[in-house]
Design a protein that fits this description.
The complex is a heterodimer of chains A (571) and B (595).
Chain A: H1 3-11, H2 13-45, H3 52-96, H4 103-113, H5 120-148, H6 150-159, H7 162-197, H8 199-204, H9 208-261, H10 266-313, H11 315-318, E1 337-344, E2 354-361, E3 366-370, H12 377-385, E4 392-397, E5 400-401, H13 409-416, E6 419-422, H14 433-437, H15 446-455, H16 459-463, H17 482-494, E7 501-505, H18 513-527, E8 531-535, H19 539-544, E9 547-552, E10 555-559
Parallel strand pairs in A: 3-8, 3-9, 6-7, 7-8
Antiparallel strand pairs in A: 1-2, 1-4, 4-5, 9-10
Helix pairs in contact in A: 2-3, 2-5, 2-10, 3-5, 3-10, 5-6, 5-10, 6-9, 7-9, 9-10, 15-17, 17-18
Chain B: H1 3-37, H2 43-89, H3 100-109, H4 111-141, H5 143-191, H6 193-198, H7 202-252, H8 256-269, H9 274-298, E1 318-326, E2 336-343, E3 348-352, H10 359-366, E4 374-380, H11 401-406, E5 418-419, H12 425-431, E6 432-435, H13 446-451, H14 459-468, H15 472-478, H16 493-507, E7 511-515, H17 523-536, E8 541-545, E9 557-562, E10 565-570, H18 572-577, H19 581-593
Parallel strand pairs in B: 3-8, 3-9, 6-7, 7-8
Antiparallel strand pairs in B: 1-2, 1-4, 4-5, 9-10
Classes of the chains: A alpha/beta (571), B alpha/beta (595).
């Protein structure tokens, strides 16, 4: 049994109860098969009266009912395990913070957390009960056979271990072959999706039809590679099947000959014939469910790798949560932000993303961060957002340490409540336009939402959408252009009038000049009375700032100087 | 029958044979034992003894053959389905080309064919034949018992699945949307992690995901309940039928041999049927997937290919767009509303305008990805028809250009050139293509990713394209043969844009289209890139769509689009002197560019 999964099952009472019920029902139903064989052999041999068929019917009914209980309990157990894992995974990923969720990994994580966990179903509701039955029923059958006919029992006892032994031998070989081919298989399997996704590009260069041939070739390759694997993989099931059916022949023929010789009576012979297959069946069931179960184990491994493995890497999560308000910077007026010798390094990378950066941003000051892409501008914003923790140095807000080893989730929440931020590529959620705008202010009225949209120059195109502010966004909703998405994100910032710190990451990237002018004007308004840090490429945005800080290779290389203007600036 | 058909028959036969061997094994063994109890001479039993051994051996081997042939057939069927799906997706405007998740789902749907065969059709056939065989055997031994068995098999094979399917149809229909809902919530949580954290909305999103999960779990529990009920009722039918068969046989005084054979074959004849009862619900999902695929295949393409394709004019090409109107949907305002422009050989035209003005739609119309509502796009050359005008390395010979060149197309001989509508859409894109929106990085080496735009290009040409797209430093660092797009070796937005530009330059079409080449690049790189681009395209027929005005002094004409119409046109010099959109834009850019 999977170690981590077992721990999870132990810790969740509902899961434990249902799983125990499921396994108990499976074992009990397996044992009832013995009784059923006994009754059937009795009636067929004439040892029992025909009225015993009523008892047989009762036993069958009990088996059927236990099967129902087993299935229902298994359904409860596996959905509960999946829900628990899913919830823990999502909570964990949230703790890890956006900086660790690079876009590529997040695609895999979406699959794992969604459909990936479904692979646990065959493991929990198929394989585990099969294992439980396999551990009990063959022994019970053997005991009964020993009692009835020792020589048959010996044949079963000798051949029974062949199943796991052969199964393991073939399985080991299969595993080696499968692992060798797994990479090739998954590459070939993914090829089709890759090509389909890239169709617009292929079409543009007249390569779409050519790729049809490539697809035919690659799928043929994929099929023959898969068949090569399966030829070996199915050997194990053939061995199981052969061992079981040959054993039946091994038992039946001597029994028949002994009947002929008069050394065995018919009731016993029939009982042996009916019982012998039941000794092999549970082991065969285990074998056939093994493959599907292993996919579940892989899914569990992946899930626990995220839950445990990356816990060690994250210092934020390991930090104890101090009491609320313990040192949270006081809100209300635009704060001063001070960075003292801050160094930030991404895990697994040699060079620092920010190195020994010291910067004082006065209350109400508008600072533009400029520099080449990859210089560390976005890293600085992520630092202020709390997505990253500095390796060394301190971040102070109004003199209170913000990003240090002791900063807990509650401090971050209190700090973030004061922020309005516009990322470089804002995500639009699969809900209405209005919900997307009031992301940071769930209580905002429709009027407030609309006002925010108007300020961000988004009202115009939103009202032209099919359902206006109720139009669904996201993949299955309407498509917005890059500029429109950007304006929705700006509206989000406007929808938080109480925020006194503004963090903008290239808000006018991918906008045409006229929209840019509108956004610049809107940003100017938004920055009033707030401390603002703006990552900027476009001159218009840079013009807006009181001060320009240039970052190169993680260091501040030039600073137009702190202008000690008051809140709002004097421009 | 074709080969695929024979393969299916073979797989079905293997399955049937495996099940029949099992049935024969238990029947012969029962006969052997009960007959032996009557103590006949040994010779009477030898056939049965041989039979038991033979059936025992062949069952395992046949099962192996069944599984191999079954999977082979299923994989072949899946391959065919994928090829057909791909063929359906090739024409522009096929559904599902927007969302990546939508596409993945479509690809997953092709797995349904596999499920249908391996878990549906083939086992069902085997179960049917096995049941029939048991009934026929019963008819020889005791017709009354055979009728009882037939009734039991019909209940398990028809009544139960039909009843359960009817019971669960509504839930089965709700299951897929519930899964999709959960996937959306999870994707929102992960892809939108930064936005959620910044606005403290993570807990709300987490709660929404938990709700979606709870809804799905309730449906899945229902599904588990149904399939458990199916197992329960199946086992009950099997047991009761067997008991009834024994009862009927005993009442009829059939004798111990016949009774035992009847009882045990009845019991075993249900075995292949039992797993099928619960499979009925899963098959509902399979048929939904197949229906979705049929819908994709039935969707008409966005543009109609000409019945009699015209020949591509030769020599340097002139493109005349006249009064072009394009509407994306009947109930929406036109995306392009009467646009005219001319691209003469060697002339460079820039199209500027706010987002949503119709700039990209114009390119789509030129690339023949959308069908215009009215207006024309005419292509004329110095020679009327001929070999595809040296479409550079992009000509991979797929369209059979030679054949088209020899046919006297409707517009080929006319002096005014050909209507774009009379060209096959592949030919249209051989003439006009370049850097399109949303370029894609394939899971392939950098070299292959570039070379798809010029399969015959030599190393020299590849290096030149890379150099002109200012990508050489990155390529040196990453390596020509590094596989992109996997294991996090993803390409940043700027690099992607440059790769796309390199592809366009390598392809070197007669008319080069560039859709926002500087998009997602930072200011300095964008300026440098635009500078290089304008150098590289000097003397080439080029249509450049952009929202940045830097460097446009160099192009021959600037067309300003707004709301689908041309509002201004002229050279940079003319436009900055005329009040209007362009001058406003230029001033707002120029004012802040002095640094």
């Amino acid at each position: 049994m999977h170690k981590d999964l077992l721990r999870l099952i132990r810790s969740e009472q509902a899961v434990r109860r249902h799983l125990v019920l499921c396994l108990a029902a499976a074992i009990l139903a397996g044992l009832l098969v013995l009784l059923q064989a006994e009754l059937l052999a009795g009636v067929l041999s004439g040892r029992l009266a025909v009225t015993a068929l009523w008892t047989l019917a009762l036993v069958v009914a009990a088996r059927a009912l236990l099967g129902l209980v087993q299935g229902v309990a298994a359904g409860h157990a596996s959905t509960a395990v999946k829900s628990v894992l899913r919830h823990r995974l999502l909570a964990r990923l949230q703790e890890m913070g956006p900086a660790r969720l690079t876009s590529h990994r997040s695609g895999e994580l979406v699959t794992l957390t969604g459909r990936g966990l479904d692979a646990l179903d065959p493991y929990l509701s198929g394989y585990l009960p099969a294992v439980a039955v396999g551990g009990v029923v063959p022994i019970a059958v053997l005991a009964r056979l020993t009692f009835a006919d020792l020589s048959s029992a010996v044949i079963v006892l000798v051949t029974l271990p062949l199943i796991p032994v052969f199964g393991a031998l073939v399985g080991m070989h299969t595993k080696a072959v499968t692992e060798r081919q797994w990479r090739a298989l998954s590459r070939l399997g993914g090829h089709f999706l890759d090509v389909v996704r890239g169709l617009p590009t292929l079409r543009a260069f007249g390569r779409a039809r050519y790729q049809a041939e490539v697809i035919a070739r690659v799928t043929a390759e994929h099929r023959s590679a898969t068949m090569r694997t399966l030829r070996v993989a199915f050997l194990s099931s053939m061995v199981l099947e052969l061992a079981a059916s040959l054993s039946l022949a091994l038992v039946a023929v001597p029994v028949g000959l002994r009947l002929l010789g008069g050394t065995l009576d018919l009731p016993t012979a029939l009982l042996v014939l009916l019982l012998a297959p039941e000794a092999y069946l549970p082991l065969r069931n285990m074998g056939t469910r093994f493959h599907a179960a292993m996919e579940g184990v892989t899914a569990a491994d992946d899930a626990f790798a995220v839950l445990d493995g990356e816990a060690a890497a994250s210092r934020t999560a390991a930090a104890p949560r101090p009491a609320a308000g313990g040192g949270a910077p006081g809100a209300g007026t635009a704060p001063e932000i001070r960075l003292e010798n801050v160094t930030v390094r991404y895990p697994g990378r040699g060079e620092a993303a920010l190195e020994d950066v010291s910067l004082v941003i006065a209350p109400g000051e508008r600072v533009a961060l400029v520099g080449e892409s990859g210089a560390g501008k976005s890293t600085l914003l992520h630092l202020l957002l709390g997505f990253l923790t500095p390796e060394s140095g301190r971040v102070l807000v109004d003199g209170v340490e913000l990003a240090g080893p002791g900063t807990g989730a509650q401090e971050w929440e209190a700090w973030r409540a004061r922020l309005a931020s516009v990322p470089q590529r804002p995500h639009l959620f699969a809900s209405s336009v209005a919900d997307n705008i009031r992301l940071g202010a769930p209580g905002a009225t429709p009027d407030q939402v609309r006002a925010a949209a108007r300020a961000a120059h988004a009202d115009g195109f939103v009202t032209e959408l099919p359902q206006g502010y109720d139009t669904a966004l996201g993949e299955r909703g309407v498509n917005l252009s890059a500029g429109q998405r950007q304006r929705i994100a700006l509206a989000r910032a406007f929808c938080r009038p109480a925020a006194d710190v503004l963090l903008l990451d290239e808000p006018t990237a991918r906008l045409d000049g006229r929209s840019e002018a509108a956004i610049v004007a809107a940003t100017r308004k938004l920055a009033e009375g707030r401390t603002a840090v703006i990552v900027a490429h476009r001159p218009a945005m840079i013009e807006l700032a009181d001060r320009v800080v240039r970052i190169d290779d993680g260091r501040v290389v030039s600073d137009s100087g702190a202008v000690t203007t008051g809140a709002g600036g004097a421009r | 029958m074709n080969r695929a058909g024979w393969r299916i028959v073979l797989a079905a036969l293997a399955g049937i044979a495996a099940e029949l061997a099992g049935l024969a094994l238990i029947g012969t063994a029962a006969w052997l034992i009960t007959r032996a109890a009557e103590q006949p001479p040994l010779a009477a039993l030898t056939v049965a003894i041989v039979g038991v051994r033979a059936f025992a051996t062949s069952k395992g081997v046949l099962r192996y053959a069944e599984r191999l042939t079954g999977h082979d057939v299923a994989l072949r069927a899946q391959a065919t389905t994928r090829e057909r799906l791909y063929q359906a997706l090739i024409p522009a405007g096929a559904p599902g080309q927007k969302g990546a998740d939508l596409l993945s789902r479509m690809v997953d749907d092709t797995d349904a064919v596999q499920d249908l065969l391996v878990r549906g059709v083939l086992p069902a056939i085997a179960a049917l034949v096995t049941g029939l065989a048991a009934v026929v055997l019963g008819l020889f031994l005791l017709p009354a018992a055979a009728l009882v068995l037939l009734a039991g098999l019909l209940v398990a094979g028809l009544v139960l699945p039909a009843g359960l399917t009817a019971l669960t149809r509504r839930r089965a229909a709700r299951l897929a949307p519930a899964r999709a809902e959960l996937a959306t919530r999870v994707a929102d949580l992960l892809h939108g992690a930064a936005d959620l954290a910044a606005y403290g909305a993570g807990d709300r999103a987490l709660a929404a995901a938990a709700e979606a999960d709870a809804r799905l779990a309730a449906l899945e529990r229902g599904q588990a309940r149904t399939s458990a009920l199916a197992t329960c009722l199946g086992v009950l039918t099997q047991g009761l039928t067997t008991a009834a068969v024994v009862l009927v046989a005993q009442e009829a005084g059939a004798g111990s041999v016949a009774t035992a054979v009847l009882a045990l074959t009845s019991l075993v004849s249900f075995e292949p049927l039992l797993p099928m009862i619960g499979a009925a619900e899963r098959m509902t999902g399979v048929s939904a997937a197949l229906r979705r695929l049929r819908e994709v295949r039935a969707t008409p393409p966005a543009v109609t290919e000409p019945a009699r394709p015209a020949a591509v004019p030769g020599g340097p090409l002139t493109v005349e767009v006249e009064d072009l109107v394009v509407r994306h949907a009947a109930d929406r305002a036109p995306a392009l509303n009467g646009v005219s422009l001319t691209l003469t050989p060697g002339k460079r035209v820039a199209v500027v305008g706010p987002s949503g003005a119709g700039k990209s739609t114009l390119l789509s119309a030129l690339m023949r990805l959308v069908e215009p509502e009215s207006g024309t796009i005419r292509i004329s050359g110095t020679t009327a028809g001929g070999a595809a005008s040296g479409g550079g390395a992009g000509a991979d010979g797929a369209g059979g250009a030679g054949e088209e060149a020899s046919s006297p197309g409707p517009g080929g001989a006319a002096g005014r050139g050909v209507d774009l509508r009379d060209l096959p859409s592949d030919e249209a894109r051989r003439i006009m293509t370049g850097l399109t929106q949303d370029p894609y990085v394939f899971q392939a080496s950098f070299r292959d990713n570039l070379r798809l735009a010029g399969p015959e290009a030599g190393e020299e040409a590849l290096a030149e394209a890379v150099r002109r797209a200012r990508l050489e430093r990155w390529v040196e660092r990453t390596g020509w043969d590094t596989v992109l797009g996997e294991d996090g070796r993803t390409v940043s937005g700027g690099q992607l844009q440059r790769l796309a530009l390199a592809r366009a330059l390598l392809n070197d079409p007669p008319v080069l289209l560039l859709d926002e080449p500087a998009e997602a690049l930072d200011e300095e790189t964008a300026d440098a890139l635009m500078g290089d681009l304008l150098d590289a395209t000097r003397g080439r027929t080029t249509l450049l769509v952009t929202h940045r005005l830097r460097g446009l002094e160099e192009v021959d004409e600037i067309v300003v689009l707004e709301n689908g119409s041309v509002v201004q046109r002229g050279t940079h010099r003319e436009l900055v002197e005329t009040p209007g959109y362009y001058r406003d834009l230029w001033r707002s850019e120029a004012m802040v560019s002095r640094r």
